[in-house]
Amino acid sequence: MKPNLKDIAGSSPRRQILKTAFTFVTGLTATSLVSFLMPKSTKPAQAIVVQQPNEFELEGEGTKIEYSILKGVPQLDYRTKNISTRFSGNEIQTLATDIGTLVTVIISKPPNPDFGGNVVKLSLLLPIINLFIGNAETPVQTEAILTTQKTSGFIRTPLSGQLQSYQTIVLRGTAKANAS
Question: Can you tell me where the transmembrane regions are (predicted)?
């Protein structure tokens, strides 16, 4: 059944509620009122409230990534058999897109940028996820992209040709909502 606003009496409090968009903030986790269950009875409408996850635990292809936003500070842990590194705050770039949020960190840089070398960046694609209140965890599948960019440095002549190469990593894990 799809409720129609014109089917509800003009003076009804239910109509006034439906005409207003709500956003609730629970701690640091934003939640949105997305719909109403409207039975054809005298029972009051019930809100279905969802929240966005703020913790992701992902792994695949020998890579483990943990990303969280706790107390307003983003953190990302990246581990492979050769690398174990942690990023926090301004070291993490985020970009909201139509396909999800892109979270990017610099994994490695050349030791001396004057001579050039490779810059390796990790970009994690976080899909849009809604979690019902009370169901604070869901399985998730996504991908990360390792971008290797060749740089010439200030001393050498500029490079030509393709300067970036990509490796995709399929990741599986969980997305959680944590009020911390």
Answer: 21-38
Ramachandran class of 71: left when φ > 0, alpha when ψ lies in -120 to 50, beta otherwise? left
CA distance 62 to 60: 6
Which domains, ranges and CATH numbers included, belong to the chain? 5-51 (no CATH), 55-176 (2.40.128)
Instruction: Copy the structure tokens of residue 96.
Output: 């909201």
**Sheet containing 131-132: order of strands:** 23-26, 29-37, 46-51, 131-132
Q: List Cβ neighbours of 42 (8 Å cut-off, separation of 6 or more).
A: none
Biggest alpha carbon distance in the chain? 78
- Identify whether the C-beta of residue 95 lies closer than 8 Å to the C-beta of residue 124: no
- The 8-class DSSP code of residue 99 comes to T
3-class state of residue 63 by DSSP? strand
- CA–CA separation, 122 and 146 (whole Å): 5
At which residue do the structure tokens 């694609």 appear?
125
Tokens of 176: 């959680």
pLDDT tens string 127-180: 999 998 877 899 999 999 999 999 887 766 788 899 999 999 999 999 999 876
* Residue partners of 17: CB distance under 8 A and separation at least 6: 36, 45
